[in-house]
Amino acid sequence: MKSFRKELHFHLPTRRGIVNITPQVEEALRGSGIREGLVLVNAMNITASVFINDDESGLHHDYEAWLEKLAPEKPYSQYRHNGFEDNADAHLKRTVMGREVVVAVTEGKLDFGTWEQIFYFEFDGKRDKRVLIKIIGE
């Protein structure tokens, strides 16, 4: 069995944002030489998420609106975590959206369902963040 590791680096200029990282994951898969196995993609920061869904701007807006209702950014004073930082809402949003995804690799390709893509979702931007791609297989 082979193993391959790659990091993606992000520094979004806004507090929140969604980035389709499917092309970077596919590039890592090609570089790994692995034809059958699994790809793990996970956010390496507790205020960001990696998830799979449709690449549709209306849906992305709906995520933002829905998450803001669940865990509004302001007022900052509503959260006990806030003090040194003002990102308690980002931690909660990440919990809802999840940390990672795992995708099967079949014949050297990501084995997706219809419309599936991999996304990085930033909840507390304007700082350096990482995503890990770990591929195992043969």
UniProtKB/TrEMBL annotation:
InterPro entries: UPF0047_YjbQ-like, YjbQ-like_sf
Domain of life (superkingdom): Bacteria
Protein's name according to its UniProt entry: Secondary thiamine-phosphate synthase enzyme
